[in-house]
Amino acid sequence: MFTVQQIEDAHSKVKSGAEFPKYIQEIKGFGVKNFTTWVKDSHTEYFGENDFKTKSQPQYDDLEINETVDQEKFAKQLKIHQQGGTDYMQFCRDCAENGVEGWIVDLDHFTCTYFDKAGNDVLTEEIPH
Questions:
Q1: Is the model's pLDDT at 71 over the cut of 90?
Q2: Are 63 and 92 in contact (CB under 8 A)?
Q3: Closest by alpha carbon to 56, among 102, 87, 100, 94?
Q4: Is 59 in contact with 41 (CB distance < 8 Å)?
Q5: Crossing angle for the helix pair 20-30 and 4-11, nearest 10 degrees?
Q6: InterPro entries, from UniProt (predicted)?
Q7: Do 74 and 100 form a contact (C-beta atoms < 8 A)?
Q8: Closest residue by Cα to residue 65 from 35, 87, 36, 40
Q9: Domain limits of the chain?
């Protein structure tokens, strides 16, 4: 089993999206199978073996998620973030502005799927590992 504190300690080492793959490897080592992060306040629900789950506290005041998805603009801003061009808070603002409600990371398949308020997939990417 793992704790939110272990995950938050690992996440504290991430300064930009460029460091995300290393973070994913570290928390997979703790036993995290997948997690869902909600852009509204950045609380995250973590899932492990045998139906184990835990969740983090909100990380900031609520952001308003746009009703309309701008997939093209989001994809461009995501690339900038992944190359280290924005910090996490700016990335979350970009998600909200472009109608992205959250993302699900699957550590078995090394994918990250961004979704809108209706639960529709906006974009799915493979995580380098």
A1: yes
A2: yes
A3: 102
A4: yes
A5: 160
A6: DUF1398 (IPR009833), YdfO-like_sf (IPR036696)
A7: yes
A8: 40
A9: 4-126
Q: pTM for this structure?
A: 0.90
Q: Could you tell me if 17 and 91 are in contact, meaning their C-beta atoms sit under 8 angstroms apart? A: yes
Q: Which of 126, 112, 107 is nearest to 2 (CA)?
A: 107
C-alpha span between 89 and 17 (Å, rounded): 11
84-103 pLDDT per residue, tens:
898 889 999 999 999 999 99
Would you tell me which CATH number, out of the four given (3.30.1810.10, 3.40.50.450, 2.60.40.1930, 3.40.50.10540), belongs to the domain 4-126? 3.30.1810.10
N-to-C CA span, the chain: 22
For the chain, what percentages of helix, strand and coil (3-state, to nearest 5) are there?
A: 35, 20, 40
